[in-house]
Amino acid sequence: QVQLVESGGGLVQPGGSLRLSCAASGISFRSNDMGWYRQATGKERELVAIITSRRITNYTDSVKGRFTVSRDNTLNTVYLQMDSLKPEDTAVYYCWSHEFYDYWGQGTQVTVSS
């Protein structure tokens, strides 16, 4: 059974930082592309960042220079370091994995507000 379990969300002030983690099980982690999507209230889910099985990274333009995606294949975990957070980053963040199929975590809320 595939499980992607996110953690690290919460409330942070503008300009602050958070680090999200996603622990994966039931997949061949090293072979999977991993990433993060987010969905704000009333908006469609959008790609935030991905890191491929070969560690190639890609980011949506709005987070470039502020967010960093990384992975630890020994821990089967993918991370999203979020710095210089803005109110518009407020959303539910979902972990994503893909090899032959797409899998999703349950989501973790990130709220950026003063």
Structural account:
This protein is an all-beta fold and 114 residues long. The chain is 0% helix and 53% strand. It is built from no helices and 11 strands. It has strands spanning 3-7, 10-12, 18-25, 33-39, 46-51, 57-59, 67-72, 77-82, 91-98, 102-104, 108-112. It starts with a strand and ends with a strand.
Brief write-up:
The chain has 114 residues and is mostly beta strands. Helix content is 0%, strand content 53%.
Question: Secondary-structure map with pairings?
Answer:
Layout (H helix, E strand, L loop, with lengths): L2 E5 L2 E3 L5 E8 L7 E7 L6 E6 L5 E3 L7 E6 L4 E6 L8 E8 L3 E3 L3 E5 L2
Parallel strand pairs: 2-11
Antiparallel strand pairs: 1-3, 3-8, 4-5, 4-9, 5-6, 7-8, 9-10, 9-11
Q: Determine the mean pLDDT.
A: 97
Main sheet properties: 7 strands, mixed
Structural class: mainly beta
Fraction in beta strands: over 45%
Low-confidence stretches: none
Question: How far apart lie the N and C ends?
Answer: 40 Å
Structure annotation, total helices? 0
Radius of gyration, in Å, reads 13 Å
Q: Count the beta strands.
A: 11
Apparent shape? globular
Helix content: under 10%
Helix and strand sequence:
EEEEEEEEEEE
